[in-house]
Fold this protein.
Amino acid sequence: MLSDNFFSFKIAGLSFVLFVLCTSVISQNIVRQNISSSDRIKIEELLKKMTIEEKIGQLSLFQSDGDITGPAMNNNDNKYYKLIKEGKAGAIFNVYTVDNVRGLQKIAIEESHLKIPLIFGYDVIHGHRTIFPIPLGQSCSWDLKAIEESEQIAAMEATAEGLNWTFAPMVDIARDPRWGRVAEGAGEDTWLGCKIAEARVHGFQGKDLKDPHTLLACAKHFAAYGAPQAGRDYNTVDISQVSLYEWYLPPYKACVDAGVGSVMTSFNEIAGVPSTSNKWLLTDLLRKSWGFKGFVVTDYGAINELVNHGVATDEKQAAGLALNAGVDMDMQGSTYLNSLTDLLKEKKVTLKQIDDAVRVVLEAKFKLGLFDDPYRYCKKERQEKELMTVESQAFARKFVARSCVLLKNDNQTLPIPATVKSIAVIGPLADSKRDMLGNWAAAGELEKCVTLLEGIRNHVGKDIPIVYEKGCNTNDLDKSGFDKALKIASSADYVILALGEEGEMTGEASSRTDLDLPGVQNELAEQVIGTGKPVAVVLFNGRPLTITKLNNMAPAILESWFGGTQAGNGISDILFGEVNPAGKLTMTFPRNVGQIPLFYNAKNTGRPYNPKTPDEKYVSRYIDVTNDPLYPFGFGLSYTTFAYSGLTVDTTGNKLTIRVTVKNTGTRDGEEVAQLYVQDKVGSITRPVKELKGFKKVMLKTDETAVLTFSLGKDDLAFYHPDLKKYWEPGEFIIYIGTNSKETISTSVFLN
Ligand code: NOJ
């Protein structure tokens, strides 16, 4: 039996179910979305006063010269301060600090005709001044509360410096680590991606956008930007409708359900239609079906790029396509500014379309309280008090430790034994402040950033001598530093080797085809490990790397991503055993690039590979490497061990109640992320071998046992069908619970 809502869905089809789901979510939704009737009247009055140029101005977003986050564009005549004065800019990005923002707002308020306040946006992606681990790292904490809290702090800091809009969260599901922007997302899983998306929107926007400590969020990049062919940024996306609905769209929908105030179009096309000119995507799906109430902004120059895509002959035609599709605001492209008036005269667009777009932009300004006080985000006292607070640093440090994933730990190499009398710290990432921050580090304060070397020194104080050598650079062939590095390794009791990518090797426009450690780092590792000293490798990187060689050599590997301001302190807490690692991978680590895309929720195929008979010929496999990843999704070690037993499933009522016993069987207290996966054995279309459906993060003392209970509705087993209707099918389901997506215990149930 299904729940009432769910039955209705099966009978009445997709649109009704979406309605049911939306209303239930919206009723719990804490974000204030509605505009009061008096504000509505004010918006209509304003619209009546606005010239067509002023209306188009509200639809135009320009970058200041405070920061540059995209290519130079052909709009140099459009100086932003002149545009503000003429009422031709509705929002500005890449400017911050109270003085800078106030200065520009003042032009809008004192020098423009209608005195409409500007919105100020920025890429506050993983913190503003206090930088937290990169989003991919954060997702490995499986800690939704911490993720939400980090966005609250980011919002507090950003709004203390004049900002009121962030271009985040980035919720693109990604299965290809060649794509540099996997660093910005929550990994490969859609279910977890939705939970994290929701936590981020709530963190940024709080309960009411009028609270000046909150930021208007922007779900991006709509849609499926995370699936570029060959992992090359900005490349074509070509996926089936079912995959689009099943894997890629849900996190954007989760943002909409959480009340996100804006959505950014993606650069890519899907099935031949660039997102920025995709009416089905932006109007039919986003607005009509999902009920999105905010405004749609393009990515940087994405309307202009419609010409390169080959769907418009010139930027004027591109502007018409974008407005007709449902784009409200043009980021940096000037296409609306340059062409909408003419397009209106030529009847290629309507005044209603322009008014509708202006309305949602003005609504955002009302929601932010900018009409009450355009300077409400420009309070010097806040800027002095709320940046980089002691509390924010303490939180950031904990968050670093929670995001780290222990990949390997032979012979309990970690934590560093208390008996160690001297430590050699080696490697190009050991003392690089810039690289700790990672990509999109907003206004991150480099000088205040704690490197690994500093973190270790902070930790041991004067008790243990720490010697440091860089050994080599991150990404060149110079081995002249090897000798010095080997010398300090040989004379120390213990070696920490800091290896990985430079911070800027991931992020936008940073796709790679070789995902091994760049430069001569593997050789450095080989020689340092060859000294016979205990060596723990700390990895810094923004994507899964193919570290098969390193994994074969190093006794211990700790994945620390790019941890941000408190990186060195948080990592040291793990290295010295003050914190027991509990992070789990949210993206599969392949053995080599040839295995990509490699993700846990794949299909079985008609000729599945059997790891027990790895040489069997006519099966879906490679002849030169196993199908298995180096580290699977959900993987992460602890300094203690956990055992799972007693898995039961109770199917009474309309739900599945799943229970499992988890015991801490090791010698240290520790936290475990128990993961629940389901396989739908037989379906009318093929189903993945496993799908994450829940998790519980539980702290257990040594020898302590906990019975964990998970509850699944039968609607949690629903999937999209070729007609794009979503419903579940009766039959056998295998329920898996375990410490990662590979090591699980299981049982099976039949559901009618
Ligand atoms: C381009 C990026 O794709 C997007 O994520 C970012 O928000 C904008 N540039 C603005 O910097």
Remarks:
- The chain has 24 helices and 25 strands.
- Residues 69-70, 123, 167, 220, 299-300, 508 surround 1-deoxynojirimycin (CB under 6 Å).
